[in-house]
Amino acid sequence: MSARNTFVCSAALALALLACKKEEQPSPAATEVKPTTPVPGATATPTAPAAAAATGSGPSFKVSEVPDIPATKSNPPQGTEWDQGVPVNTQGANARAKRCSMHVLREWLRIYCSGDIIGYEKKEDFGDLGSDYYEKIVQGKYASFVIRLKKGDNQKIRICREKNRASLFVSWPPSSDKPKNIALGDGPPCDGSDWGVGYGKAGGQAKKAGPAEGAEGPDLEMLKSIDAAASKECKAGNKDACMYYCGATSCG
Questions:
Q1: Which terminus of the chain is more exposed, N or C, with fewer CB under 10 A?
Q2: Considering the domain boundaries, does residue 166 fall inside one?
Q3: Which residues share a beta bridge with 101?
Q4: Is 90 inside any structural domain?
Q5: Nearest residue to 83 (alpha-carbon basis) of 111, 57, 109, 46
Q6: Handedness of CA 231, 236, 239, 240 (dihedral sign)
Q7: Tens digits of per-residue pLDDT, 204-247?
Q8: Which residues make beta-bridge pairs with 133?
Q9: What sign does the CA torsion over 138, 140, 142, 148 have?
Q10: Which DSSP category does 151 fall into?
Q11: C-alpha–C-alpha distance, residues 180 and 85, integer Å
């Protein structure tokens, strides 16, 4: 073999070896990417839960139809769970109890009334305290009830104030899938005729309000914020807010 041919073969072999080495190098997509050192203050902010966003929207004073009630039992809603509750009151608009709200969530009804509360009377079909219903009444501040709605039961109660009362009437016929009425109406002062029955006894059909531990807690703060929001929205022309605040389409 001539010197020229030997040089050509050597050059060709060198080029072939160089090509093989290039093919052995991993592609950029397959190389391992080492994590970079995080920059202080650049961490992602977690998404806020939906419940927290709902609480920022403010209370709704427009009542809706009674929602469907599930057939299965559940535990009573807690805290911000009630943000998903449906505002209800089948009482005629001009006869609804003032400064009171009702919400239904699953089979549970929550009632809040604020003002010069002095007690309650004529409580019927509530069931057992601590499992079928829960109550808290604070003299001169508020009354709170969470009640399990039951087919065939017709819960009633008068929530008493110094100058008027809020009277609850629930009607759920056994043949119906949900209550026909969940009404909370305005009425004259309680007569106190049955305050002696169960007075001072938990779960009695009548009870006088008294100072309660924790009266200045979250319940009272929430009621104050609802009243303030109703007053503000009423002044802005929201008739539903006026109905809640003073029982009329406008408040003087």
A1: C
A2: yes
A3: 112
A4: yes
A5: 57
A6: negative
A7: 788 878 775 556 666 677 777 888 888 888 888 888 888 787 77
A8: 129, 147
A9: positive
A10: T
A11: 18
Phi, psi of 111 (to 5 degrees): -120, 130
In the chain, the amino acid numbered 111 is: I
Q: Tell me which H or E stretch contains 231.
A: helix 218-235
Q: Which residue has the tokens 């057939």?
A: 71
* Residue pair 183/66 in contact by the 8 Å Cβ criterion: no
- Spatial distance between the Cα atoms of 111 and 169, rounded to a whole number of angstroms: 12
How many helices (DSSP H) and strands (DSSP E) are in the chain? 4, 10
Give residue 39's identity as a one-letter amino acid code.
V
Digit-coded pLDDT (tens) for 144-192: 999 999 999 999 999 999 999 999 999 999 999 999 999 999 999 998 7
Instruction: Identify the CA nearest to 74 among candidates 177, 181, 172, 149.
Output: 149
Which residues form the domain of 172? 83-218
Residue 60 lies in a domain: no
| Phi, psi dihedral angles at 117 (to 5 degrees) | -65, 135
* CA–CA dist 8, 217 (Å, integer): 95
Q: Is 51 helix (H, G, I), strand (E, B) or coil?
A: helix
Q: Which residues is 104 bridged to in the sheet?
A: 86, 109
User: Is residue 225 a part of any domain in this protein?
Assistant: no
When divided into structural domains, the chain yields a total of: 1
- Predicted TM-score (pTM) of the model is 0.69
